Amino acid sequence: MRKKVILACAICNSRNYSTNKNVSAQDTRLEVKKYCKTCSKHTLHRETK
């Protein structure tokens, strides 16, 4: 089963991206390096609650 998750910047906490995650295959929180428009650089984005 897939679940919609929202990714937030680890530095400025702005919620920039949303994606789908396979809940049955991955039980930890998703962490991806993506571009943040607020910070104007690539930063780590983490899954929010």
Describe this structure in words.
By secondary structure, the protein is mostly beta strands. 0% of the residues lie in helices and 59% in strands. It is built from no helices and four strands. It has strands at 2-9, 15-22, 31-36, 41-47. Strands 2-1-4-3 form a four-stranded antiparallel sheet, with no helix packed on it. A hairpin with a 5-residue loop joins strand 1 and strand 2 (15-22). The radius of gyration is 11 Å and the shape is elongated. The two termini are 17 Å apart.
What's the topology here?
Blueprint: E1 2-9, E2 15-22, E3 31-36, E4 41-47
Antiparallel strand pairs: 1-2, 1-4, 3-4
Q: What is the compact description of this entry?
A:
With 49 residues, the chain is an all-beta fold. 0% of the residues lie in helices and 59% in strands. It has strands at residues 2-9, 15-22, 31-36, 41-47.
